[in-house]
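Morning!

This is the sequence you dropped in the shared folder:
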Amino acid sequence: MERVYAAGSLALRADDRATKMAATMLQALGFLVIEEILADGTLRRLERGQAKQALDRPWRLSKPAFSGEIGVPDGGGALPT
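The structure's back. C-alpha cells below.
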C-alpha cells in the first residue's frame, strides 16, 4: 500500500496473486482502487466483488481520491499537488 500511495498507482502482473488477494481486502476497506488492464491497454475499474473474477488479467492499483470519495482514484491515479 505504501508503494501505491507513494507513486499514485502500481501495475501488477497477472500472476501476482498474493498481492492481488491483499489488494481486494484493501479495496473492501476503501484504501485502494483496482482497475483491470485489458488487452488493448485500457483500464476497467473493478467494483467490490468483481476483482476475484479478474485474477487472470494484470491490474493497476490506485489510491482513492484525496477528497475521500471511496472508489474514485485521483486524476490519473496521481498524488494531488
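Headline: The chain has a mean pLDDT of 83.

More detail when I'm at my desk.
O.
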